[in-house]
Amino acid sequence: MSSIITDPWFYVAAVPAVILLGLAKGGFSGIGIAATPLLALFLPPLEAAALLLPVLISQDMISLYVYRRHWDARSLKIMLPGALIGMGVAWWTASIVSDDVVRLIVGGVGVAFVLNVWLRPQLTPAKGAVAPGVFWGGVSGFTSFMTQGGGPPYQVYMLPLQLPKLVLVGTTTIFFAILNVLKIGPYILLGQFNPANLSTSIALLPLAAAANMLGIWLVRRMPTGLFYKIAYALLFVVSTALMAQGVLGLIGAK
Fold first, then answer.
1. Which end of the chain is more exposed for a tag (fewer CB within 10 A), N or C?
2. What does the alpha-carbon distance between residue 150 and residue 56 come to, in Å, rounded to a whole number?
3. DSSP codes, 50-70
4. CA 107, CA 127: separation in Å to the nearest integer?
5. Contact partners, residue 122, CB within 8 Å, separation at least 6
6. Helix 165-189 × helix 130-147 angle, to 10°
7. d(Cα 10, Cα 43) in Å, to the nearest integer?
8. Direct distance between the N- and C-terminal alpha carbons of the chain, in angstroms, rounded to an integer
9. Calpha distance 34→239 (Å, rounded)
10. Contacts (Cβ under 8 Å, ≥6 apart) of 91
């Protein structure tokens, strides 16, 4: 634990990021997309995503147990193949571009999703169709690999199905738990794990577990509207700042 990140400003971003992830894993899917952009203000984007991965997997274990009886097999069969393709594309992209380009991609993805929510809230695919499910699964796999924020494209396909609330949450939990485990190998091959981020992940685990349980408690008792409004506003601000960092970094590199 001696190699833990000690910059206090990092934890100003890390604490709310882990709380957002916990709420997302508890059932408020989508609001966790702001987590990696927050940390990417202090770390290279993929390193930020790798730091959060052990936190996510620990939260997955809690949510899988809670929602183990609530899930939709057909949706998983449709979306997972596309997600694997999307993750493969993201892996290839991350291996050939600079951190500043990744910042632009991560920030651009965040801004695009927020603008879609704000400007085109009725954009939905045909209910249950296979092709849209594979496509949005692919987009979700790509953004999940890059930003740990695959929730919004996943929801574009899943929400119109109007599944029972707990079935939707359980299906979401299983989908992203599978993706998170599959990220371990590519992140190792990309060299994104190091003693500092692994030690910091371990230090954040108690907060992650508490936030996860809070999310589980809230999803059974409160409407999600306010959480989404706050999270998307935060995501827009942070993603815009991240894009600015990427542009300035690319200009400075020339």
1. C
2. 13
3. HHHHHHHHHHHHHHHHHTTT-
4. 29
5. none
6. 50
7. 9
8. 38
9. 8
10. 145, 186, 190
Spatial contact of 239 and 111, defined as CB atoms under 8 Å apart: yes
Q: What is the pLDDT of residues 15-36, one digit of tens each?
A: 888 888 877 776 666 667 778 7
Structure tokens belonging to residue 135:
């496509």
Distances (CA, A) of 68 to 71, 81, 104, 133, 165: 7, 21, 37, 22, 14
What pLDDT, in 10s, does the model give residues 116-171? 778 865 545 556 689 989 998 998 898 889 878 777 678 778 877 878 878 888 89
Please report, as a single letter, which amino acid is at residue 102.
V
Residues in the chain: 254
| Amino acid type, 230 | I
* Lookup: tokens for 52: 């959060």
Q: Copy the structure tokens of residue 6.
A: 């000690």
Burial class (CB in 10 A: 0-12, 13-18, 19+), 195: exposed
